[in-house]
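Usage

Read records sequentially. Each one opens with the input sequence:
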Amino acid sequence: MAELNPRYLAAVKRQVWAQFPELQGAEPEVASRPAPGAAGELLILTFQRQLPLPGGGSLRRLVRATVTPSGEIVKITSSR
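and closes with the structure output:
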């Protein structure tokens, strides 16, 4: 499994937290998968947090950032 440089990890976390402030402070779970059509791997950083709703319920907010081992963000997806 490819490792992400701590400096790149910090930069990705800052960008995700800036785009999704409700996830501020959430630490990502890191997984890897093969890169489609290319040699190497992509890293998947999954951020999640339970958010309270006005009616007393909660909503699980999930954001996945797909990142190259060199720290480049390929894609960010999120739940509603």
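Summary fields computed downstream for this record:
- The chain has one domain: 6-78.
- The radius of gyration is 14 Å.
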